[in-house]
Design goal:
The protein is about 45% helix and about 20% strand. By secondary structure, it is an alpha/beta fold. α7 links the parallel β8 (about 120-125) and β9. The structure holds NADP nicotinamide-adenine-dinucleotide phosphate.
Length: about 300
């Protein structure tokens, strides 16, 4: 598995394992340990979490595995996110909290849940219209100084939001984790990917298979996309169309780092296999054209 240099002193495996759906995987701790071992054997060492995943249970599920096998966590880079707050108890509405107190408190909870002593990369989950960027910078400085978090970044930020926060921070923002797939190309068009290239950072890519819709979608676009993926699959000799959907991301010059959301090792092997194929420009634009329904200008 190739690796991507995300920052000084931090590289990620080119394929990242995401824990958003971990509670749906229905693995007991022993099974999860075995799955993590298999991922590590494939070279997938980077784990993507968020405090809210699994309705606040995902980090704990992972943490039970780490408690039994702390050696596994030592081979991993652990990413987590915070700032989304779900309604519960006396919280009446979903909202964002990017205050220093909230960020520091959530990191401390994440460390305790996952049974780890530091987070490799902490991302702010969503842009917060009520953000005080000075407070975020203060939280980042404090967490870095205390050794609780080594690197910082953002998720779902548009270029102006990234640049605004960056201008307040004393630490670099090492990534923007955004949605991108053959089916969801908005972040190719809204300036995010050019910003990553400009900033010399690598975007982490969520829902690289559009949450499975690449296979299940029955609309005109999805059907056209599958036909094109199948054509390119035959040309490249890939085993299945998901490999081509991942190759479409890997082939892009921005050095994208996709996060797979599957808990099945045979499916996790697909993005790893996709690293073998570099799509030609023509193949890349065949997929683009199939989804857009028109040629480039
Ligand atoms: N920053 C953010 O705002 C944000 C938002 C959403 C997600 N994320 C991160 O991104 C990760 C991935 O997102 P995602 O789960 O939506 O990714 P995804 O890979 O696009 O979708 C996963 C779904 O597709 C299926 N699937 C995965 N690989 C497959 C394959 N090779 N063949 C057939 N089906 C396949 C899975 O099936 P099975 O259920 O059978 O495995 C699962 O239901 C999350 O775990 C999370 O870490 C971040």
């Amino acid at each position: 598995m190739t690796r991507t240099q995300m920052a000084d002193g931090l590289s990620f495996s080119r394929v990242v394992l995401g824990f958003w759906r971990v509670d749906e995987w229905k693995l007991d701790t022993g099974q999860l340990i075995r799955f993590l071992e298999e991922c590590l054997d494939l070279g997938i060492t980077t784990m993507d979490h968020a405090d809210i995943y699994g309705n606040y249970t995902a980090e704990g599920i992972f943490g039970e595995a780490v408690k039994k096998r702390p050696d596994l966590a030592k081979k991993m880079e652990i990413v987590t996110k915070c700032t989304i707050v779900y309604p519960s108890g006396n919280i009446r509405v979903k909202y964002y909290d990017s205050s220093e107190k909230w960020i520091v408190g959530q990191v401390e909870k994440s460390l305790a849940c996952m049974h780890i002593d530091h987070i490799d990369a902490l991302l702010l989950h969503r842009p917060d219209p009520f953000m005080d960027p000075g407070e975020v910078a203060g939280a980042f400085d404090r967490l870095k100084k205390e050794g609780k978090v080594r690197h910082f970044g953002v998720s779902n930020y548009l270029p102006h939001e990234y640049r605004m926060l960056k201008s307040y921070c004393n630490v670099p923002l090492i990534t923007d984790q955004v949605e991108l797939s053959c089916l969801r190309m908005e972040n190719l068009e809204n300036g995010v990917i050019p910003m990553c290239l400009e900033e010399r950072i690598h975007p982490m890519i969520w829902s690289p298979l559009a949450g499975g819709k690449i296979f299940t979608g029955q609309g005109e676009v999805e059907i056209r996309l599958r036909e094109t993926l199948e054509l390119i699959r035959k040309e490249t000799g890939a085993e299945s169309i998901d490999e081509i959907a991942f190759a479409w991301l890997f082939s892009h010059p921005a050095g994208m780092v996709p996060i797979t959301g599957s808990g099945e090792i045979e499916l996790v092997k697909k993005p790893a296999a996709a690293l073998r194929y570099q799509l030609t420009r023509e193949q890349w634009f065949m997929i683009w054209t199939a989804v857009k329904g028109h040629k480039v200008l």
